């Protein structure tokens, strides 16, 4: 992970970061959170995985629906006897073609299979064991930098490992769903996921711990999959319509149609 000032791309970003938040800005994310919570209710509590299992899950889950991602973890355990949380050696030692067969239900299994095997081999080579439990001793930014040294592991995956696993650290997971909703709401200037996370973290109240950040991500993701979908957002019934420039534009255009 870069430092904040390194990551921001413009002097305006750095200046904005240093300026204190107005009360309205400080309530931006909590307000969205309250509206989503009122509409959808509390998300189910997450069953926390150990850091390595979460890393494997996040790698396989890219561009794949959640039920399929959960199923593929069970497929790995079924296909490679002895494999499971704390024991992923049978997957590491399997052939790429066997891994590809086991993960066939996710998107791009031909790309994910060699990447997964290579990642498990590299972790073993660097640490002398196939476990990420040692990361619990590190600061969050160090953990994320360590994870992101591996090919194919970006900020989204490193955030998921630190926030969704038993590490339970503060991070906001900006996947494609989360990014779409935040961009439509114009909460921060449009940017890639890594920059968006940095910018959004400035609006996250100090009092939001790892569980709260996870709850926020779950609510925004649920909203992205329910109403704020990729190709046909349902803005009329959306609980965020009053504060959403995109939704207001969409609904005004509908009213103007003959
Ligand atoms: S109003 Fe429409 S575009 Fe805005 S968040 Fe809701 S569904 Fe998405």
UniProtKB/TrEMBL annotation:
EC assignment: 4.2.99.18
Alphabetized SMART domains for the sequence: ENDO3c
Keyword Disulfide bond belongs to the record: no
Cofactor dependence: [4Fe-4S] cluster
Region (Disordered): 1-21
Residues annotated as domain HhH-GPD: 60-225
Keywords: DNA damage, DNA repair, Endonuclease, Glycosidase, Hydrolase, Iron, Iron-sulfur, Lyase, Metal-binding, Nuclease
SUPFAM superfamilies: DNA-glycosylase
Enzyme category, top tier: lyase
UniProt-recorded Gene Ontology molecular function terms: class I DNA-(apurinic or apyrimidinic site) endonuclease activity
Family: Belongs to the Nth/MutY family.
Entry protein name: Endonuclease III domain-containing protein
């Amino acid at each position: 992970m870069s430092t904040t000032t390194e990551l921001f791309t413009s002097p305006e970003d750095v200046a904005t970061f240093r300026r204190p938040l107005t009360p309205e800005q400080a309530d931006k994310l909590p307000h969205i959170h309250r509206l989503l919570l009122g509409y959808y209710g509390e998300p189910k509590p997450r069953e926390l995985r150990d850091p390595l299992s979460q890393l494997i899950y996040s790698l396989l889950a890219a561009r794949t629906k959640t039920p399929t991602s959960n199923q593929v973890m069970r497929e790995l355990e079924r296909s490679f006897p002895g494999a499971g949380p704390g024991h992923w050696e049978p997957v590491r030692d399997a052939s790429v073609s066997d891994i590809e067969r086991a993960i066939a239900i996710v998107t791009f299994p031909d790309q994910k299979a060699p990447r997964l095997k290579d990642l498990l081999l590299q972790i073993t080579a660097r640490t002398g064991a196939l476990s990420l439990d040692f990361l619990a001793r590190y600061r969050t930014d160090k953990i994320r930098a360590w994870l992101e040294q591996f090919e194919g592991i970006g900020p989204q995956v490193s955030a998921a490992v630190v926030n969704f696993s038993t590490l339970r650290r503060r991070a906001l997971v900006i996947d494609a769903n989360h990014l779409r909703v935040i961009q439509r709401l114009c909460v921060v200037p449009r940017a890639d996921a890594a920059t968006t996370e940095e910018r959004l973290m400035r609006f996250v109240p100090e009092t939001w711990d790892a569980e709260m950040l996870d709850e926020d991500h779950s609510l925004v993701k649920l909203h992205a999959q329910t109403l704020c979908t990729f190709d046909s957002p349902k803005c009329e019934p959306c609980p965020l319509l009053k504060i959403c420039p995109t939704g207001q534009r969409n609904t005004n255009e509908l009213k103007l149609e003959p």
